[in-house]
Amino acid sequence: MTAPVIQKPLVRARKVHKAFDKLEVLKGIDLDIMPGEVVVVLGPSGSGKSTFLRCINHLEAINGGYIEVDGEQIGYRLRNDRLEKLSDNAIARQRRKIGMVFQQFNLYPHMTVLQNIIEAPVGVHGESRSDAVANAKRLLERVGLSEKADAYPRQLSGGQQQRVAIARALAIKPKLMLFDEPTSALDPELVGEVLATMRDLSKQGLTMIVVTHEISFAREAADRVVFMDGGKIVEMGKPEDVIGNPQHPRTQAFLSRFL
Ligand code: ADP
Ligand code: MG
What we know:
GO terms for molecular function: ABC-type amino acid transporter activity; ATP binding; ATP hydrolysis activity. The chain is an alpha/beta fold. The chain is built from nine helices and twelve strands. α3 (about 115-125) packs parallel to α5. It is globular and about 50 Å long. The structure holds adenosine-5'-diphosphate and magnesium ion.
């Protein structure tokens, strides 16, 4: 008999607290995410969704608890029983495992699509230009934009720009992808193509945390749905449970807006 493979979570968040001065924004977040899992985070505006993603990526330092990604604590290390802040270099190395896509695509306007995608691998991570270009071309194929390699961002629709931003985030070969309302800035007719790209990625075994108000995407693509309110996880589970049969009054109230 072969021994069962015990998989470790790729992300472990424990008692995560974050405050901006006196404003407590995250009030003890506990969440484990397994490799390959797609987790959709729902919740009203101001509930702390973006802050949580930003803490995972160490764009914000947390005030309590810890976050581990791929077995390493984000931003800190334990030394002689004391928590020590990591060096900028060490943090950059951790960030390399995490790709992030924002509401605003923030492509470099003076660079072509291809240049945007190879910028971090070549400029920051020292990958050879030819490897980075080959990888960028594969990624453009994956997001359905092979023919746009030499276009400039202004020549693309918002949906195409966001798909380039996804390819750019994937170019560092992250283990974890974070999406923060990636379709919220798009005209309604452009939302579908970006969600379709994300749905493809979700089927390819990528570990994803997606903050979105697209309930249908959550229902179809999520392995798990997390509902946040007031800096806490109020409810979490399979989409058919959390969306189809929410237990908490605040989840019910939030979802009733989408019916
Ligand atoms: P969500 O993404 O769920 O809408 P956010 O994480 O953006 O929520 O924000 C949660 C709360 O934290 C809000 O009250 C917001 O105003 C506050 N906040 C977010 N970032 C900062 C910051 N850099 N400084 C001060 N307050 C912030
Ligand atoms: Mg937000």
